[in-house]
């Protein structure tokens, strides 16, 4: 329950009192207390959260597009029902996250406008195309697997509404990864052509999935303060390693090969060591030059524009009903 | 490009008969009917509820966090409001 009217009071004042408030704030964070919407918080903490939570929400929304692409072509009713449920979940996750961002004093309309204007970022992974049915398996297994790695620590994020949203998201997300792996397993145990399709999907999604964890720790621009504020609990590289360690044996179980000749198990550290990530590709995709950036934005803009009359009609109807009720009350 | 804002609603769900409605989150909807439908879609996709309440967020009056001490600290010193404050000999048995 977020009475947002209280949110605006603290912005823009600096002085000795703020330093004291900031110290008290950090002490609360250090004591693992959750920060709630109406609590005092540094303006930079608020900005960081609005940026991160809204990017996360945008990612869920744009993330519906690559998978939605295969709903009508799912190979069976069972697969279709699961895929529809998954895409609905992504939409729901976007809604939970937008609501969490809004508790920080931004409106839904502002956030959506920023996405549609191309000012807001979303996860680079959704700018890759889903060329075959196996891509739906690879997305569930790898993309959702990577997302879960990222999201589980966020359940303990210092900001209450974000952490609560993430708990809900993680609960729902676990079916996504399993349904993806099941698709991969079915293909891997199928005909030679089906297995080749699964291998091709793994080849294309593996490296972009490793990029999902963000730039290497040495180059990450937001990490230090986010860690101090307990928004971020593990570094990009640590999460990436965790993902690789969890995923490599799963790939081997499928009988598939990871597209990385440098991949090898280090007995001493018990970690899978992997090859160099092509960060120039990551930067290109972030800069808007990935395979599907323009398609994704065009699809979101079209959806928003095509839904405008529905939003307008709903608001007009609500206004009319209010006016009618007021007139009836006046006449009585 | 800015559009008129759609009202915000807080959603409460009763997970089973016999339990209280519990706050689960919020959503935007033009009116109460649409808010109930959206709450159904958004918060009960896996049988989480048997009943939904939606309340306009603007109708909620919240305590101010600045008043937290004044509001809630007085209860801290009143340990005699808890059963564990009172000593009952073991021989009396469960009470």
Key words describing this protein structure:
heterodimer; A: 332 residues; mainly alpha; two-stranded antiparallel sheet; 13 helices; 2 strands; globular; disordered N terminus; B: 95 residues; alpha+beta; Ubiquitin-like (UB roll); three-stranded antiparallel beta sheet; 2 helices; flat
Would you kindly provide a written description of the structure presented here, covering whatever features stand out?
The complex is a heterodimer of chains A (332) and B (95). Chain A is mostly helical. Chain A has helices spanning 16-30, 43-62, 64-68, 77-102, 108-116, 133-154, 160-188, 192-211, 223-228, 236-254, 279-289, 293-306, 308-331, and strands at residues 264-266, 271-273. In chain A, helix 2 (43-62) runs antiparallel to helix 4 and helix 6 runs parallel beside helix 8 (192-211). Chain A is globular. The model of chain A is unreliable at 1-13 (pLDDT under 50). Chain B has a domain at 1-60: Phenylacetic acid degradation B (Ubiquitin-like (UB roll)). Helix content of chain B is 18%, strand content 21%. Chain B has a three-stranded antiparallel beta sheet, covered by helices on one side. In chain B, a hairpin with a 7-residue loop joins strand 1 and strand 2. The longest helix of chain B is centred in the middle third of the chain and has 12 residues, at 32-43. The radius of gyration of chain B is 21 Å and the shape is flat. Chain A binds chain B through residues 1-4, 6, 36, 38-40, 85, 88-89, 92, 95-96, 99, 102, 107-110, 113, 116-117, 164-165, 168, 172, 308, 311, 314-315, 317-318, 321, and chain B through 1-8, 10, 23, 25-31, 34, 41-42, 45-46, 57, 60-62, 64-65.
């Amino acid at each position: 329950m977020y009475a947002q009217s209280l949110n605006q009071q603290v912005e823009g004042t600096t002085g000795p009192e703020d330093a004291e408030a900031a110290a008290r704030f950090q002490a609360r964070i250090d004591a693992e207390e959750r920060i709630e919407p109406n609590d005092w918080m540094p303006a930079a903490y608020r900005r960081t959260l609005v940026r991160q939570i809204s990017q996360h929400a945008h990612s869920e929304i744009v993330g519906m597009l690559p998978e939605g692409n295969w709903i009508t072509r799912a190979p069976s009713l069972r697969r279709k029902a699961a895929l529809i449920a998954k895409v609905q979940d992504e939409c729901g996750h976007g809604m939970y996250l937008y609501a969490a961002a809004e508790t920080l004093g931004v409106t839904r309309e502002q956030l959506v406008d920023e996405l549609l204007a191309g000012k807001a970022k979303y996860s680079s992974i959704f700018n890759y195309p889903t060329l075959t049915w196996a891509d739906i398996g690879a997305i569930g297994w790898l993309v959702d697997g990577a997302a879960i790695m990222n999201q589980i620590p966020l359940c303990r994020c210092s900001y209450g509404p974000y952490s609560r949203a993430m708990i809900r998201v993680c609960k729902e997300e676990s079916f996504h990864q399993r349904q993806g792996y099941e698709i991969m397993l079915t293909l891997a145990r199928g005909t030679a052509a089906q297995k080749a399709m699964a291998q091709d999907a793994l080849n294309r999604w593996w490296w972009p999935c490793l990029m999902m964890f963000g730039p290497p720790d040495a180059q990450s621009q937001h990490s230090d303060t986010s860690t101090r504020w307990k928004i971020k609990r593990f570094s990009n590289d640590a999460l990436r390693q965790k993902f690789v360690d969890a995923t490599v044996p799963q790939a081997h179980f499928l009988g598939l090969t990871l597209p990385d000749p440098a991949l090898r198990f280090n007995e001493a550290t018990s970690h899978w060591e992997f090859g160099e990530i092509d960060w120039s590709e990551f930067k290109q995709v972030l800069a808007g030059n990935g395979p599907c950036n323009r398609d994704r934005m065009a699809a979101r803009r079209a959806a928003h524009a095509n839904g405008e009359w529905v939003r307008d009609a709903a608001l007009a109807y609500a206004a009319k009903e209010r006016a009618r009720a007021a007139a009836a009350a006046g006449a009585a | 490009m800015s559009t008129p804002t759609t009202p915000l609603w807080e959603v409460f769900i009763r997970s089973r008969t016999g339990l209280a409605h519990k706050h689960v989150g919020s959503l935007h909807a033009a009116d109460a009917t649409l808010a109930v439908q959206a709450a159904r879609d958004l918060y009960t996709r896996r049988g989480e509820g048997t009943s939904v309440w939606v309340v306009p967020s603007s109708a909620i009056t919240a305590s101010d966090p600045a008043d937290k001490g004044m509001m809630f600290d007085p209860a801290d010193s009143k340990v005699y409001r808890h059963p564990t404050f009172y000593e009952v000999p073991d021989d009396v048995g469960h009470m």
